[in-house]
Amino acid sequence: MASKTDRVGGDTARVSVVVTADYHDLVETRELRYFVAVAEELHFGRAAQRLAMAQPPLSRAIQQLERRLGVVLLHRGSREIMLTEAGAVLLREARLALEAVEAAERRTRRAAADRPGVVLATKAGASRELLSKLLDAYAADPGAVAVEMMLCGPGEPERLLRNGSADVALLHRPYDTTTGFDTEDLHTEPQVLVLPAGHPFADRPHMSMTEVDALTDLPLPRWPRPDGSYPDGPGPLVRDHTQLTQLITLGRACAVMPESLRAQLRDDHAIVPVPDAPAVTTVIAWPPHSRSKAVADLVRTALRL
């Protein structure tokens, strides 16, 4: 590592300059894909099968990656493989890097399409009124292009925006993570508890989250994580809004959801305000490096609303 002296704001500062290794020592995308497969399967045979390759060259590739990085990524036992701390870090970072590469490929192909357009992802059933107004207002713009809608399950709009399948998305904090995106807040609303009509608490003026958590006869639902697994708990497993509302009607669950969704509920549901539940903010989000005029116009239209 070399260093040089630079002058910042009138003061002398010591700036460290990292001298990188030769270009050929850089980690390749192919190596990251190999490592992710092994790290997720924790078995070279299964990983090789998943990658449609033989096991010996896969083992050699991982050994070469370890030599290149100068760290041990895997503890290799006689019966099992375990990630080292360094391996766990690389798995997390490699997933992000591969996702970024795939996103770049998708956006590049879409930019070269004969018919320009923009792909908007949003959770099915959420922000319905806002979405309708946004699409109508944007369509009235003389420079508007075609908007392809991707109506998804919970958590999917964020994933589709990150992997490049969508150009822009309507996300909902705190349920969606907006880190790494450019965003503009569009609407904030309180949350309410949805109960089956006729429940003893249906006529309550309000309830606290502590009281909601104590409803053992109506447990809160369990939504899937990004990897498809479910958290532990007594609540039923759900994947979409329709499934959830039916479970509430049958007296198998309750749910805390944005107040605007009450318009989609039926007479066999009851609504109780939950003042201490976190407010839900609908945001429009897009990749920070986007230079799409269509995305910029769509964002400006959303802000005008």
From TrEMBL:
Keyword entries, A-Z: Activator, DNA-binding, Transcription, Transcription regulation
Keyword NAD on entry: no
Domain of life from the UniProt record: Bacteria
Pfam families named among the record's database cross-references: HTH_1, LysR_substrate
Domain HTH lysR-type: 27-84
Family, per entry: Belongs to the LysR transcriptional regulatory family.
Protein name: LysR family transcriptional regulator
